[in-house]
Amino acid sequence: MINAFHAGDDPLVRVSAEIPSSKETILIAGFPGSGLVGSIAVQYLVEALSFTHIGNIASPLLPAVSLATAGLAQAPLRLYEKGRLLVVLSDVPVSDEGSCTIPSRILEWLCARTVVTEIILIGGVVTGGDGERVFGVATTSEGIEKIKSSCQILPALNITGITGGFLTEACLRNIPATGFLVETNFDVDPRASAAGLSVISSIYGLALDTEPLIAQADSIEPMLQKLAEDVKKSDVPPTAFDEDIMYG
Amino acid sequence: MINAFHAGDDPLVRVSAEIPSSKETILIAGFPGSGLVGSIAVQYLVEALSFTHIGNIASPLLPAVSLATAGLAQAPLRLYEKGRLLVVLSDVPVSDEGSCTIPSRILEWLCARTVVTEIILIGGVVTGGDGERVFGVATTSEGIEKIKSSCQILPALNITGITGGFLTEACLRNIPATGFLVETNFDVDPRASAAGLSVISSIYGLALDTEPLIAQADSIEPMLQKLAEDVKKSDVPPTAFDEDIMYG
Amino acid sequence: MINAFHAGDDPLVRVSAEIPSSKETILIAGFPGSGLVGSIAVQYLVEALSFTHIGNIASPLLPAVSLATAGLAQAPLRLYEKGRLLVVLSDVPVSDEGSCTIPSRILEWLCARTVVTEIILIGGVVTGGDGERVFGVATTSEGIEKIKSSCQILPALNITGITGGFLTEACLRNIPATGFLVETNFDVDPRASAAGLSVISSIYGLALDTEPLIAQADSIEPMLQKLAEDVKKSDVPPTAFDEDIMYG
Amino acid sequence: MINAFHAGDDPLVRVSAEIPSSKETILIAGFPGSGLVGSIAVQYLVEALSFTHIGNIASPLLPAVSLATAGLAQAPLRLYEKGRLLVVLSDVPVSDEGSCTIPSRILEWLCARTVVTEIILIGGVVTGGDGERVFGVATTSEGIEKIKSSCQILPALNITGITGGFLTEACLRNIPATGFLVETNFDVDPRASAAGLSVISSIYGLALDTEPLIAQADSIEPMLQKLAEDVKKSDVPPTAFDEDIMYG
Amino acid sequence: MINAFHAGDDPLVRVSAEIPSSKETILIAGFPGSGLVGSIAVQYLVEALSFTHIGNIASPLLPAVSLATAGLAQAPLRLYEKGRLLVVLSDVPVSDEGSCTIPSRILEWLCARTVVTEIILIGGVVTGGDGERVFGVATTSEGIEKIKSSCQILPALNITGITGGFLTEACLRNIPATGFLVETNFDVDPRASAAGLSVISSIYGLALDTEPLIAQADSIEPMLQKLAEDVKKSDVPPTAFDEDIMYG
After folding, report:
1. Would you tell me how many other CB atoms lie within 10 Å of the CB of residue D87?
2. Mean pLDDT of all residues in D108-114
3. C-alpha to C-alpha distance for C166 and B38, rounded to whole angstroms
4. Which of A147, B116, C41, D236 is 20 to 30 A from residue C233's alpha carbon, by CA?
C-alpha cells in the first residue's frame, strides 16, 4: 500500500520488504569488490533464474545512489527470492564503516521473519596468478567437508570488507556459512564470477548455466568499468591471500 | 501561534509546517546540483504558479545559512503547496551525509499527514554534449511507460546525491517516482531547467509557461554564480551518465 | 542553591539559568564573527544598560574556554535580561557544527519558560567597501516594513553561521526575527557595532548611547585582536554579500 | 565486592568510586597541560598529605593508557579524598573533545553524592616571562576577594582546555570555583607547581610544605619529559594570556 | 539453535557466547601489538591446552575481517574456556577508539554471567634491548607481591592500547589484574610470547610447555608478517618504557 513503510525503526539500516515466502531460507550475497566478482555473480544469478524482487534496503552508511537500468530506478541494496533462496544484491560498494553493521541489521531483519539455514557468499580475491581458482571457506567443519572437493581450501585466507562482516555475523548467529573467493586480477571479471557460480551451482544443485555469462563477458566488461572505479576509490579493502600463511 | 513548535522530536531533521491541505499529494523536489538545474526549476515553478509557503525544515546536516531575498530571510529548506502539488525546495546544497537521511525524514513527516501518491524529481546531469536533452527514469514500469514518449530513456544512468536518495526512499516506501535529469554543461543553466520543466509540465499537465525562465536566463545566470560555486565546493557528487553503460 | 543543576537533560546543549522574569520577551543575540561586530555590540549593550546575568550555557560543540575578566571567570555562552529584553552573548566563536543545534536548543529552553515575541540579531558582513552601512533582513514582511527606513535592504544577502542558524530557527518556530548585518572590513570593528546598535536602538526604542563605544574604539581594538584571530582560525564562515545578486 | 560495578550507566564517562565520606566537600583538580603544572601539583598534594584513593574514572574520550608506578597499574583518571578535600587527578592529557563532557559528568556523579561547596583548579600558563607568578581567577566576586591578596589578578585571562571546562561547569552548577594559573615556560615545571600549591595552601589553610617538591625538581624533571611530549602532541591548547587584554 | 542470537542489545559490542561453565573464572587476554606477543601467546595457549571455543564478539569498532584457517572462517574476536580459565583472543588489531569500549563491554557481558576473580594480560613492549625480559604490573599490592619474584618490576611503565584499557577496566570493576609485558624488538616475536607464557604458567600453575612454540618460531614468523604489518598500519600505539622514569 502506498506510503506504508514496511521497515524497522532502526535509522542506520532500514529494510522495506515483503516477508520471505519460505519458512526456511538460504541467503546468497555478493557485493562489488575485487573484479566486481560478487555483484556480477548474484546479478546474473537473479536474472538467469528469474528471482522475484521482494524489497529494498537503505542506509546512511551507503552512498546515496540510485542506478537506473533502462529507465528503472532502484534502491542500491535489494532483496530477491526464489523458492527457498534469498539474494541480497548491491549496486554500490559498502564502506568499512558499514561492513559490520549492514550484515548485522539485514540478518536481524531476516531472522525475525524466516529461519536462515545457511549463508552463501561470493567475492573476488586478488592473487597475482593466472587462473580463476575458487577458494572456499566455511564457518563449520561440516561446511568445509561439503565444499572441499569442489574448490580449494587454503591454509590461511583473510576475508575483508562486507564479505568478512557477513561471515562474522554468521558465526555470531550460529548460521552455517560458506564463502567462495574467486581468483581475480582484473577490474571487471565476469569469468571469475562464472567460475564461482559454477562451484556454488554444483554444490547446492542450482542447475545454473554460466555459459551465457562467459559469452557476454567481452561486451559487459567495459560497461562495468565505472562501478569498478567507484570500488577502487571507496575504502573497500581487497581480500588478499598468501598460500604460505598459516596462523598459530 | 508564536513559539509553538509544529515539528517532530527528531533532532536530525525537524519539519515545522502546516499539514498539507490535500489528502492526496504529489511531491516535486529539486536541489542545487549540476547546473543548479533542480533548484532553479522548482524555484521558478513555485513563483510562476504562485505556490503557498507552508513550512520550513532545519537540520544540522545542512549548512547553517539563511538566504534573504529583498530582505526576507528564510529557512534554507522549505515546503510549498498548490492544490495537490507539494514542492520541497532548497537554497543550499545537501551533503552526502544528508542525502539519505533528509529524504527519509521529510517523507516520514509527509506520509504521516498526507498520502503522497507520486514523487517527481528534477536535476542536472553533466554529459559533455551540446543539447539540453531530458533523460527520464522511474521507479516502476508504469512510470517508464508514462514518461518514455516525452523524454529519453538511457540504458543506464547513475543518479547521485539527494536526488538518488529520494529515488531510493521512494522505492522503500512504494511511492511511484519519476526523475528527470537534464543535460547540462554549465555552472548555472536555467535553459536546462526550462527544458526539464517543459517535459514535466506536458506529462503532468501543469500548464506551465517556461518562456519567461528562458527569457531571463541571461540576466539571472551571473546572479546564481555564487551558489553554483558553493555546490562545487560542497561534496555533492555530479550525476554522470554514459550512454554505453548497460548493467548486468 | 549549590550543586542544584537548573538545566535540561540534553547533553548537547545545557542551559542553567533563572526563568526570565518577563512573560513576554525579546531576544537579542550577537556572536563573534566578521569584525567581532555582533559580540562587541551585545557586550556593550549589556554593560551600558546594566543587564542582569541570569544564566549560563555549556556545550561540547563550543570550545572549552573560560574568559576571566578582572579575575571573574565566566561560562563562554551566557544569558542576560533587563525588563522584557533577553540577551544571549558568546565569548567564543561557534563552529558550523553548532550553528544549527545551539540556536535550536537555546530557543527550546527559552520558549518553554517565556513567550519570545521577537528575535533581534546583529553581526558583520564583509563588503570590501568603505562605509559602515547597516543591511537589514527580517523573517516576515511586517518585519521588513518596520526596519526598511532605518537600514538598507539588499536584493540578496546570504547570512551564514549561527546568525543564519538563529534566523532559520526563528522561521521554524514562527517567531518574527530581524537581523542587522553591518558592513565591516576590519578584524575588530567597534564602529560597525555602534552603527548597528544605533539602528537597533532607534527601531526598538532602546535609548542606547553608542558614543562611548565609538570613543573607546581605538583603545579596545588591540585588546580584542586575539579573539578575532580565534574567529579566523575557526570554521565560522564570513557572511558575504553581492549587491547584484538576485535570486529566482 | 568483586565484579560489582559502582558506576553510572553513562557510557561516555564512567565513575567507579566509593561515596565521599564527607557530606560537604571541596574538589581540587589539576591536569597535564603547560609545564604539567596541574598534574604535578595535585600528585604531590595527594602524596604529601596522604590522601586516600577512593575511585577511578574511565572514558572513551581519554587515551586508553594505564601508567604503572613501581608495578602498580592504575586507571588514568582517579579520585582521592582526605577529610573534606576531594582530588581528581589525571595521568593523561584530556583532549578538547573531553574538556566539556568530562568535568560535566564528574560533577554530575559527585553532586549526587556530596555537596561540593567549592572547586579549586590549578594549571600552567605560558607567558614568555621569567618568574613564577600565580594568576588567580574566580567565578564569584567573593572568590576574587578571597584570593586577590595572595595572587595576581589580570585584566583578562583566557583559560582553555579541561581547566576552562571545569570553570564553565562550576558556573552552570553555581559552585564557587577558584583557579590558579601559574606562569611557566618549561615542558616540566615542578617549581611552578610548588608556587601554585603555596598560594592554595595559604588561602585554604592546607599546611602543605612545598619545599620537598622544589628539592626534587631537578631529579623528577627528566622523568616527566615523556608525559610532557604527550601533552604537546595532544590537542590540549595552552592557556595563554596578555596583560594588555581587556575585554568590553 | 539456528538464528537465535545470544547477545545483548548493545550495538557497539555484541557478544554471542555460551555462558561460561565455571561460576568463578580467570580471564586471560592477549592482543596483536608490538611483536604480536599477546596474540601469539594466547593463540598458543588455547591450542596447547585444548581450550573450547564458546563464543564470538562483533563490533563496528573492529576491522570487518574474517580470518579463515584451513578453510574455517571465524569471527575476529573470540572467547574460549577450559575449566576456570577464560581466554579472549583477537585476530585483528584493536584501534584506539575501541580500546576503552571493547574491554568495558566484554567485562560487562562476562560479569553478568560469571564471577571474574582475576584478569591476566600479556603483551609486548619495545625496549631497544637484547633480551626477552618480562616486566610485570598488577592493579593491587597483593598482585605485585604474587608476581614480583617471577618477573621484573619497573619504576614506571606506560601500558597503552587495549591492554591499558583492560587494566583500567579491571580497576573500575575491582577485579585484580596482572599484566606481563615482554621485551620485544621484532615485528613477529614468538620467543617473547613463550617467555611471557612461561612466567604466567609458573605463577598460575598452568603446566604449559612453551618449548614447541619456541621450536616453531622460525617457521611461523614469516607467516605472521602480514598481521604484523596490519598492526603497524593501525593506530595501535606501542607500549614503551624507560627504566629511568619514575613518576611523582
Report:
1. 24
2. 96
3. 27
4. C41
Asked if residue D192 has pLDDT above 80, the reply is yes
Interface confidence, given as ipTM, is 0.91
Nearest to D64 among E138, E160, E171 (CB): E160
Q: In 3D, which of D179, D187, D194, D178 has the Cα closest to residue D132?
A: D194
pTM: 0.91
Counting CB pairs under 8 A, whether chains B and C reach 3 or more, is yes
Q: Which among D205, D183, D211 is positioned nearest to D196, based on CA atoms?
A: D183
Using CB atoms, list chains with 3+ pairs below 8 Å to chain D: C, E
Residue C219, CA distances (Å) to C188, C215, C216, D161, D188 in order: 11, 8, 5, 29, 37
Residue D214, SS3 per DSSP: helix
Report whether C38 contacts C123 (CB < 8 A): yes
The three three-digit cell numbers of residue C226, written as one number: 586575539
Q: What is the nearest CA distance from A67 to chain B, expressed in angstroms?
A: 4
Which of A124-128, C157-161, E145-149, E171-175 has the lowest average pLDDT? Answer: A124-128
Q: Which three cell numbers stand for residue D57?
A: 574514572
Q: Say whether residue C65 is in contact with chain D using an 8 A CB cutoff.
A: yes
CA E89 to chain centroid: 6
SS3 E121: strand
Q: State the count of interchain CB pairs (< 8 A) between B and C.
A: 136
Q: Which residues, other chains included, contact D20 with Cβ-Cβ below 8 Å and sequence gap of 6+?
A: D54, D81, D86, D110, D113, D114
When CB atoms are compared, the residue of C144, C157, C245 closest to B223 is: C245
Sign of the CA dihedral A85, A91, A95, A98?
negative
- Give the one of B108, B115, B144 whose C-beta lies nearest to A72's C-beta: B144
Matching residue, cell 525524514: B105
> Computed from CA positions of residues B58, B63, B66, B69, in that sequence, does the dihedral angle turn out positive or negative?
negative
Beta-strand (E) ranges in E37-127? 52-58, 65-69, 72-73, 77-82, 85-90, 115-126
* E64 with A165: Cβ contact below 8 A: yes
The answer to whether B73 contacts C159, with C-beta atoms less than 8 Å apart, is yes
CB B184 within 8 A of CB B152: no
Q: Report CA torsion sign: A147, A149, A152, A154.
A: positive
- Report the relative pairing of strands C72-73 and C65-69 from DSSP bridges: antiparallel
Distances in whole angstroms, Cα of residue D105 to Cα of each of B81, D42, D59, D170: 47, 20, 10, 12
A116 touches chain E (CB under 8 A): yes
Residue environment code for B205-233, b if the CB has 16+ CB neighbours within 10 A, otherwise e: ebebebeebeeebeebbebbbbbbebbee
Specify the pLDDT at position D9.
52
Residue D8 reports pLDDT greater than 50? no
Torsion-angle region of B205 (φ positive above 0: left; ψ -120 to 50: alpha; else: beta): left
- Comparing B219 with B48, the larger pLDDT belongs to B48
Give every CB contact of residue D61 below 8 A, 6+ residues apart in sequence: D12, D13, D94, D95, D97, D98, D101, D102
Cβ atoms C70, C133 nearer than 8 A? no
Torsions phi, psi for A154 (to 5 deg): -90, 155
- What percent of chain E has a predicted confidence (pLDDT) above 90? 74
* Strand ranges inside B83-114, DSSP E: 85-90
Average pLDDT over all residues of chain B: 89
Alpha-carbon distance A128 to nearest alpha carbon in chain E (angstroms): 17
Region A115-134: what's the mean pLDDT?
A: 91
Position D25, amino acid: T
Strand order in the sheet with C14-17: C14-17, C52-58, C77-82, C85-90, C24-30, C115-126, C177-184, C134-138, B72-73, B65-69, C156-160
pLDDT number for residue C211: 94
Say which residue the cell 558506576 belongs to: D7
Nearest CA-CA distance, residue D77 and chain E, Å:
9
For D49, the grid coordinates are 598529605
